[in-house]
Amino acid sequence: MTQDTLLARAPHPEEGTRWWRDAVIYQVYVRSFADSDGDGVGDLPGVRSRLPYLAGLGVDALWLTPFYVSPMADFGYDVADYRDVDPLFGTLADARGLIADAHAHGLRIIVDVVPNHTSDRHAWFRAALAAPPGSAERARYIFRDGRGPDGAEPPNDWESVFGGPAWTRVPDGQWYLHLFAPEQPDLDWENPEVRAEFADILKFWLDLGVDGFRVDVAHGMAKAPGLPDVGHPNQVEMLGTAVLPYFDQDAVHDIHRAWRRLLDSYDGERIAVAEAWAPTPRRLAHYTRPDELHQAFNFHYLTAPWDAAALREVIEESIRTAGEVGAPATWVLSNHDVKRHVTRYGGGAAGLRRARAAALLTLALPGSSYVYQGEELGLPEVLDLPEEFQRDPQRLRGEGAGRDGCRVPLPWEGEEPPFGFGAGPASWLPIPPDWRGLTVAAQSADPGSMLALYREALRLRRDHPALGDGGLRWEASPTGTLVFVRENGGRRLGCAVNTGGETVRIPARGTPLLASGTVRLEGGHLDLPPDTALWWDVEEG
Ligand code: NOJ
Ligand code: MG
């Protein structure tokens, strides 16, 4: 702890002005970060106790996943009260304390807001169930009569992201829409009452001092008028590749513009980042037009394979399209909804090697980067979680493998599970015993560890004038490699990445700054082994 405190970063001289354009934002999945009360579930005091670690890591801001009152049907993405903290995670006083302490450590706080749907236990939905069809209570949600004899068929063919029909029938025969679990009824954003309520919720948290919002399902808040059929089965496979009548509708942008005006009425550059699955980088960029949200997660980068050509294409397209609207590009490798990238990139030693190289690639790109908790430890996906622990609604409804394997709690220290995650004997998902060597404590003692690599990369990113916001210049390089130069204030930083299977020789001159593996830079060239990346101070010549 003391070592981390010493490492706590000093504020950047230009901090406060458009800080978000090149911020590194660390995603805290609260449930799995640190548990203060020994119940096996991470909580806000747990996060608070680990702020020195996060400040020492060198990130700029934390994004906290939902900690609001919730029956946890989707682990907090089903909110029953947007203005209070679930007892599992602490109290409102804990939230205030966390915000204040984070600010004292130079860390900004972004909270999740879930506007597409509420929990089915939210007071509004309970009232809707108790009220008759056509009532004002029902009009906050999307209730419709069914089709077919007796209205026994759902109103249209929309499928839930978690599998099965996106409609559930209530006892009086009407159906309500839920793009996710049945416990997550969709709100009707055409209803002014819904808009007013969320403006008020945003103000509540802004007044409490948060620096911004991560907007859940930002692309889903508006549905096509008349709720037309999609006309295709297996709609889940079309996510992010086609415009569906319930996602990426133009009307969402009006809602976002109103939110931006609200954010801009506060001081201190409060931001919003869109969780939006759009079919192309260009459509994604619409979410970050100057009068809309500040950033949007780049899932095109996340889903790109570990292949230089594929990565280059998405990097170029992302920078170009974000640049066209004046927004920073963002870079995301993992989050709580996808398989961790060590595993996506092949797992084992190769996956880890690639993830190390990917860290240097990602943190050298212009714009803002997201780090998902545990990626700085090189955690893999846990693929063999015992059946009885797996509780993700996505898996329970039959879509894919489920997301529990990327949500396993962090290993902090010690020789045995739960590795200092909490004071109790267990964690809500078991931590594999072979994570002994991956704990924060173990990696802090090892200069060759993933954690050491992240700490040094983040330190350089903060100190090196060429990193962060700005442009990028590609250099010609052999197939299977990416080489680019970042330049600012007379300083040039080179980044070279080899995604191929052979060592390559690249013309380069200068001083190595940080490598993800063993490289040689001398005599005007760089020898770069497979799955390795290097940052160096470029000397022209
Ligand atoms: C996206 C969140 O990241 C995910 O965890 C959640 O299941 C859905 N939105 C629904 O809220
Ligand atoms: Mg706890």
UniProtKB/TrEMBL annotation:
This is Alpha-glucosidase. One of its GO terms (biological process) is oligosaccharide catabolic process. Keywords: Glycoprotein. Belongs to the glycosyl hydrolase 13 family. PANTHER family: ALPHA-AMYLASE FAMILY MEMBER, NEUTRAL AND BASIC AMINO ACID TRANSPORT PROTEIN RBAT. Gene3D superfamilies: Glycosidases, Oligo-1,6-glucosidase, Domain 2. Residues 27-407 form the Glycosyl hydrolase family 13 catalytic domain. InterPro entries: GH, GH13_cat_dom, O16G_dom_2. GO terms for molecular function: alpha-amylase activity. It holds the Pfam family Alpha-amylase.
